[in-house]
Design brief:
The protein is α/β, with parallel strands linked by helices. Helix content is 39%, strand content 24%. The protein has nine helices and seven strands. It has a seven-stranded mixed β-sheet with strand order 3-2-1-4-5-7-6, sandwiched between helices. A hairpin with a 2-residue loop joins β6 and β7. The radius of gyration is 18 Å and the shape is globular. The protein starts with a helix and ends in a 5-residue tail after the last strand.
Amino acid sequence: MFPLSKPLTLLRWRRVAASVRHHSSLTTELIENMDKKATWDRFYTENNSRTPTFKNFEWFFGFDSVRDFIMPLLQTKSHPDALLQVLDMGCGTSALGPCIYRHSPLPVRVTCADISPIAVRLMQEHIQAKAIQPNNVSSQLEFVELDCTHIHKHYGSSSVDLIVDKGTTDALLRSKEGKGKAALVLKQCLKVLRSSGSLLQFSDEDPDARLLWLETEAQEPGVMAADVGVQEVGELRGVCYYCYQVTPRCIVQE
């Protein structure tokens, strides 16, 4: 329906992949198999081997570029005695989750989840060595190996306040076999989010394409529905990025 959308975004992903490429075969594997665990294990292993000390790798941009989209959603507790539950879905070795943990004035439990145990181990080792201190002494930070198509195995229904997705859905949608997984992930996100919660997708995909996909996949008559909005994050290296916010909508049973 949007014939220019996929080729343009693939070019952008090739540009990202080329910037971190260690072997040419990694670029091809990354583009074609971004929904596969083995691809990311290899990516993080090779990317980490390029530097003598650990360095966070950020897809698209870092926390400072999107903090004004994230932090306002963490101003109200869903329950007076509960930690706000935050999921950084497909965290890789990004500093995004740890930055939320470090800056949130309210107590949060930030779960940084990734399909790659290599990425999870690297982040665990990095945080242990760096000893990041939270803004709120009650806040918690954890790193877990988790396939994002299995979110329901880690969270119960209506238990999460915020899910942050910086490039994970993009990776699935642009993989040969990932489109069905992307739709499954979206539905699972909506099931585990509280009614007051939100899913934030940061992406370079044009709103004409992503909004239609979100509005279509987030609706299931009599089961689930969602409101979808978009804001422009800004332009970086000639590419425009967007924040798509998806919030569950109550289903009224007739």
